[in-house]
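Appendix B. Raw example, untouched.
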Amino acid sequence: MTPASDQALKGLRDLTTLQWYVIPLLAIVFYVYTLEIKKARESGSWDAVFAGATLFGTDFLFETINGWVFALSGYAALWTTPGPTALRTTVGWNIEIMFMFALAGIIWHNTLPENRFTKVLGIPNRLFWVIAYAAFCVFVECLLNMGGHLVWDWAYYGRSLRGIWPIFFCAYFPLFLSPMLVTGLESNRAKIITVGAIYGAAAAMNLLALGVLGWEY
């Protein structure tokens, strides 16, 4: 087990580490979602809410897979967040990250032009913003890594040109692609089923790993 992994396990899901700033952050998330729900009731379009729920659910699934990598390898997760936090929820996830990604899908959706057929730099606008936000998140993650807040222990993840591409294509590109695919479905029923499947898969994996197998991540 790497030093970062060992550090990330200390205080894992320890509620005594909670800080008061979590409360206003939670209120901001609630405010954004209630505002989008109000808009959806008036317009009949729930895509902003679906985008937010989809991206967060996809991140939940990815973080679960990240935990499985740690548990099965006994070495390290693909990414580890060992630094100070108000609450570390898994070895690679904390409450600050959770709040951010709870809003990221809505932010992505609100960036889009109304006409889905327009292009940006010759790229369909929705795909362009998937790429743009994914690239920005990789940049931010590199800054966090430089500060020691986010650690990559596996050789193929890193700030080199070779190490950047796996982070982009395996993590952030599919993360921002998920709300594009879900909001592109024709019916709300199909969107609900797809979002439910994402959360269901993540929940089932965690129930099996943490509740049945007794893994720790």
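End of appendix B.
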